[in-house]
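Structure tokens please, single chain.
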Amino acid sequence: MRKFWIITKDVYLKNVKSISFLIMILVPFIMIGIVYLAGNFAQQNSEINKIGVLSENQQVTQQLEQVKTDEFSFQAVDSQTQAQKELADEKIDAYLVVTVENDQLKGQLYSENSLGQSTQLLIQQQLTGLQSLLRASQLGLSPEEVASLSQPASLTRQKVSFDSNNKMKVGEDNSGVQYAISYAATIILFIIILTYSQIIAQEIASEKGTRIMEVILSSTTAQKHFYGKLTGVLLVALTQMALYGVILTVGFQQFKHMDFVKSIIENISLDKIIGPFLWYALLFMFFGILIFSVLAALCGSLVNKAEDTAKAILPVTYLSLGGYMLGLILGASDPNNIVIRITSYIPFLSSYIMPIRLANETVGMTSVLISLVVLIIVTFLLMFFSANMYKSNVLVYSEGGLWSSLKQSLSIMRNERKKS
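Here you go.
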């Protein structure tokens, strides 16, 4: 075990002390800072679009002139000729011609440049609201009565369960919080796999087929070397997650008194977050990272040069991307889909999909346990197979591609078993 920990420590310290690790830690916060500063700069320097409004119905013109938003304001123009002149002189950014036909408002917006889809949608909403007011006035309804008619209905979901006597119990619905946790776990899992699969493959492939490897294997076994490198990189990933946890905790303590943060956390309690669902989500995430890391290590052991690892880990990338897309798109929109139900039991994919199904409460705990046990068993079987594959090909140099190296390694493994 001493040699195993020496290898693990060497790989861990080499990666943690590297500039790339520091950059990897800082990049998310730098990006958040850039987005925040860009948003503030755009908000402070954005100009309100001035839109001329022209209509034969004076009530329409007067109502629109009273509309003031952060994105645009209306000002009346006497004619299309005046509107066109002011638009050409850049006194206004656009002009709106509103006509009334059969109690229906029709607006035509003229502009040299697009005002943006969000602005056009807001203008359409203003016209829709104005049309409702005009029809209400014709029917003799007050603005308060119109508002009451447009009041949306309320719908809440109650989670129910039945005891042994078929008596129904009403509980609290936590699916919203659970879905947010599973969504975040899926994204984090995908990012970690993409980031560290390349690092793991390079670590495994870096000394393969060299004189240095012969010296290393004279003092330890290939399996210990394989497990040591794999553990070292996984500890680097764990360190990164721990640092993010500390930074987020400190940041939360600093900003928890802000109104924006209060509005987010006021409806969230620890009882909703901490529970069986969270632990299952973390277990699927942990073993998902582990099984993809082992697969990346296996792919790395099949290449002859560290430069070839980018091509070698393509199976890892595509498999991870498939699970990510299935979980976030199909799993979120239709968690009872037959494809989602089947793939939630398939190792690699289950790490992405089962937490989504569990968050939507479309699967029982027995099924979750079965999926988790299958994932754990396959992970350790793949780890054992990869370590033995590494033992067989660690000193082998093959001119063929990945598939040729795999066949050669399997052949060597079979021959070694026959000899033993």
